[in-house]
Every structure is written in C-alpha cells, then in structure tokens.
Write a structure and sequence with these properties.
Layout (H helix, E strand, L loop, with lengths): L3 H10 L23 H24 L6 H14 L3 E2 L11 E5 L2 E3 L14 E10 L2 E10 L5 H18 L8 H14 L3 E2 L5 E3 L6 E5 L17 E4 L2 E3 L5 E3 L6 E3 L5 E3 L2 E6 L2 E4 L7
Helix pairs in contact: 2-3, 4-5
C-alpha cells in the first residue's frame, strides 16, 4: 500500500497529492525503528495473515466477480484471524483492499459495481494489523485469458521486486535496492513509477524511510540495519511513468492509458539478507 496520507492532504487542499520526489511520510511520527524480537514475532503473525489472504484471493478470482466481492472476503478473513484491516477507514478509505485494474496504478476503490473481466490485469493490495503491528503486501493477478503483454508486465514487476530484495542486508543501502529494481525494469522497456514509494512499516502502516525504486538524490539513501522492517513495492507501467488521480480522489491511473503492475512484500532486514514476512508460499 502506498501513502494514503498524501492523497488525503490533496483532498483537503485541492492541490496535487505528490511531489516530484515521491510521496511524503508524516515527519511527526517516529524515525526509523529497529524492531525488537517481540515486535518481529508479532509482525510475522500480521504479515502471515496478509500473505494467506492474498494467496486465497489469487486462487479464487475469476471473471464475473466484483472487486467488492474480494473486499468483503478479505475483511472477513482478516478478522477471522484476530486482526483488523489496516486500510479500512485509513484517512477515509472505504475498502479493506485496494483493487486496481489494467491502467489503474494504485488505490483503486473496491466496489460491488466493478466487475472483473476475462483478461484483466488486477492488482490487489491489503494490510492487516495484529496486536498493534501491520503487515502489507500486493500481488498482480492475470485474470483468465490475459494478453501476453499483461503477463510479461506482471512477471517483470515481480522479478523487479525480487531483484530489489536480493540487495537487502545489513550494511547495504536503499540506493542499491533501487538501482537493482530500476535496471531490471528498464532492461525490459518498462517505466518505474516515481510518484509512489515503499516505506517502513510496523506500529504505523507507513513509517520512515521512503523505499524508492529508482536512482535519486532527492530522498535519503539510508544504510540498512538488522531489525528494520520495510514494505518494498515496485510499480511498473508498460508506457510512460506519468500518472494522474481520478475524480474520486483515490484511484491513480497511467497518464497514457498503458497497463500497470505492482508487487509488494513486507520484509525484515537481517545480517545476511532479508526475511520475506509476507511470503505466500510459506503459509
């Protein structure tokens, strides 16, 4: 999930939600936090719930369902596991999931009127809060007979996430992660969306630092430490990187109408790599 707080600010002011250097994190919150063993254990639980729900949604999606169906399912399952949906009510967002289809980039509002069709490229992003700590993850689903173009974009997006995660370890930097993502994306002719970044995650859904996916000098190049927990989430467009927000003040779409794909994991930085807390294969 990206930074809803910026979109909320835009809703109130009528000004653009994002700066050229990416979304802002509330500086009134704590700085970068190193999680304790107790906190990490809780985050493993919240992240496992997210991974389970997304795996189940990936298995159940079929043409003719609505994004509202998926949202209701996700909320029920999260609450059954003793957690609460991280997104629902967050700065006024109405869904448990973000459901973004085809050229929708992020923050698609789930609705019982939005029918999922054969061939759609569907992004499902959700979070769960268990015992005060959040997990956050996103998957891209090729629905039914999706085009080769859609499947290739989804595959490269997932690969770019894993390329970024492969650079994470104590002592590495965010710029190393970002460079690996950007190089993989651009080698396949796609564009990295720069308007949104990943983020720290823990007691708050969005914490420091901003986890960017492209080379930049405009955001802090943090050196990673064991015990940091990050939500890493590359977003790729098949065309240009430019995006715009629809009149609902939430749904972001590609400016040129091209397809968009996103994958996200919550991870724990360790001495020799990272632990993927939202690993769907582990649940």
């Amino acid at each position: 999930m990206n930074l809803f707080a910026d979109l909320l600010a835009a809703n109130r002011s009528g000004t653009p939600a994002l700066t050229a250097t990416g979304p802002r994190i509330d500086r009134g919150r704590r700085g970068i936090e190193i999680k304790s063993a107790r906190e990490i254990a809780i985050m493993r639980r919240s992240s496992r719930i997210v991974a389970m729900v997304l795996r189940e949604i990936a298995d159940m999606v079929q043409p003719g369902m609505t994004t509202g169906d998926l949202d209701a399912y996700a909320e029920t399952r999260i609450r059954q596991e003793g957690a609460v949906p991280s997104f629902k009510g967050y700065h006024g967002f109405t869904g448990t999931i973000c459901a973004s289809i085809n050229n929708e980039v992020v923050h698609g509002i789930p609705s019982p009127r939005r029918v999922i069709r054969d061939g759609d490229l569907l992004k499902v992003d959700t979070g769960a809060c268990f015992d005060g700590y959040h997990g956050d993850s996103c998957i891209t689903i090729c629905v039914g007979n999706a085009s080769d173009e859609a499947r290739r974009l989804a595959r490269v997006a997932q690969e770019s996430l894993m390329q970024g995660l492969s650079r994470i370890r104590a002592g590495s930097t965010l710029l190393e992660l970002a460079g690996a993502v950007q190089d993989h994306v651009e080698s396949h002719g796609y564009a990295v969306v720069e308007d949104f970044t990943g983020h720290g995650v823990g007691r708050n859904l969005h914490e420091e630092p901003s986890v960017f996916n492209y080379r930049t000098d405009d955001l802090p190049n943090v050196t990673l430490r064991s015990g940091m927990t990050l939500a890493v989430e590359p977003i790729l467009n098949a065309g240009g990187k430019a995006c715009r927000t629809l009149r609902d003040r939430w749904t972001v779409v590609t400016q040129d109408g091209s397809l968009s794909a996103q994958w996200e994991h919550t991870v724990l930085v360790t001495a020799d790599g990272c632990e993927i807390l939202t690993d769907r294969d582990a649940v």
